[in-house]
């Protein structure tokens, strides 16, 4: 991450050099349909996303493997921790702590309310 809080976009031509082992669920922020922009030079997916920095709310949050209650917990996120949101769907947000993970789902309600403009 740069000092301005934005990731550098990959430069030059991206190319595939052969099969890549898919990371385990809950590790790198990559799914079949999208991935963190910082992984664009390593993994091929349909869409790359620039993360939206969000704060975990006052109760903390469980980062889950799947977007459903009772799913396996990847890790517990402390209140005030910064979370990189990559996708929102229904009541759930998928994201990570950074391009090296961990990654998973949490309820949008567990994020601190947005402030400012």
TrEMBL record:
It comes from the Bacteria. This is Bacterial dipeptidyl-peptidase SH3 domain-containing protein. It comes from Tsuneonella deserti.
């Amino acid at each position: 991450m740069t000092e301005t809080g934005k990731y550098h976009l990959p430069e030059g031509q991206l190319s595939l050099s052969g099969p890549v082992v898919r990371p385990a669920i809950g590790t790198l922020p990559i799914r079949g349909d999208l991935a963190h922009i910082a992984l664009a030079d390593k993994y091929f997916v349909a869409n790359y996303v620039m993360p939206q920095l969000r704060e975990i709310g006052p109760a903390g949050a469980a980062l889950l493997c799947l977007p459903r209650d009772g799913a396996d917990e990847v890790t517990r996120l402390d209140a005030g921790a910064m979370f990189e949101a990559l996708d929102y769907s229904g009541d759930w947000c998928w994201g990570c702590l950074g391009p090296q993970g961990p990654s998973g789902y949490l309820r949008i309600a567990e994020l601190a309310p947005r402030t400012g403009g």
